[in-house]
Predict the structure.
Amino acid sequence: MLKVTSVDILNTNNLKSIKPLEIPIPVGQLYWPNFNEYETQFRALFERGYYTNHGPLLNELENQLCQYLDVKNVICVTNATIGLIMASEALDLNGKVITPSFTFIATPQSLAWSGIEPVFCDVNLEDHQIDPFEIEKLITPDVTAILGVNLWGNCCSPDVIVKIAKKYNIKVFFDSAHSFGCKYGEKFIGNFGDLEVFSFHATKIFSTGEGGCITTNNDALAEKLRNIRSSYGINKIVEVTKTSNGRMSEAQAAIGLLNLKNIDFYISRNLEIFNLYKEKLSQISGLELYEATNVSASNYQYIVCKIDESKFGITRDELCDILIAKNIIARKYFNPGSHKVYPFLQLSKSNTLNLPNTEILNSQLLQLPIGSKVTNTIVNFICEVIKAVKTSVDALEIQ
Ligand SMILES: Cc1ncc(COP(=O)(O)O)c(C=O)c1O
């Protein structure tokens, strides 16, 4: 039997009758403060004439983030990538670090900046998070740390991973770019391991436009990180080998302060959107909607679908093409996998990588839009398109 393609589906009357959205809807859009409040903050910023170098707004944002996350130290930075690079430096890492390939490329790239070789570990098929049992198998004398990643408003098993790191006397830190505002048990993500790094990029639940922060309950490590960030905002001078410019500007901090006031509202709106997708997509054979079940509170920032071609009838890639043709800008995170792209491809060639679950997720996951521009009407539209696709696939297969 010939394979059904996205072109075949788009040419069915079912799909032809659905007009594309007038304006393309990207996968994630910034929750942004009210413009009047934003204007007031910016007017004050211009009147003060103090734009960066650890100004009053940044100080206030760091204090408020410490309170919100219930963590001792927050070090705000330009973005999470810089934060991760600073983290490797502050932790004095070298040799090899175990991390998942199933993550945004910035995770292993941050290690590469410090001359560290990532050792790619597989993830669980159920929760998409790094598999602690696989971690232990990869520990060798030249491994100096584990860099866990908390994905999709969910988390890996931070307590289990911290225990493994203790057992082998190595460092442990987390890329928590996706999981701001999430809780594991009683504690907010941001309180585990030696340190954690968050992204405040535009696609994240809490945004400063571009930005990020490092959190740690270790005061000495925090001081080191402040010294690495730049000379501004340090409490005391400590010796560090390298410094950088990871400073967050007052303009970014102003946006952060306004957004932090609304974080509970943003999370509850995300939950509404998630529940609507769940209701509308629940009966579609071959499509499974991801739920963050390890955390006691999620930020619901990612709508992740797994497409099983054998039941859905077409591949994730074909479905993605159809959605994009209708101006629904779905994304295939993370494809290709980190181990499949330069320079890490070389590692894959020289080592025997065992990443079967990563490979499946790389080829089957699709992320749907969520965020400030996603109204209930848009969610309904997206789900109608997906249902129409499935109806057309089934009809074409019968012919
Ligand atoms: C898992 C993960 N880590 C790191 C980053 C890098 O964050 P930033 O864009 O703030 O540098 C991202 C960005 O999306 C990410 O998804």
Summary: Residues 79-81, 103-104, 106-107, 149, 175, 177-178, 199, 201, 212 surround pyridoxal-5'-phosphate (CB under 6 Å). The mean pLDDT is 95. DSSP finds 16 helices and 14 strands in the chain.
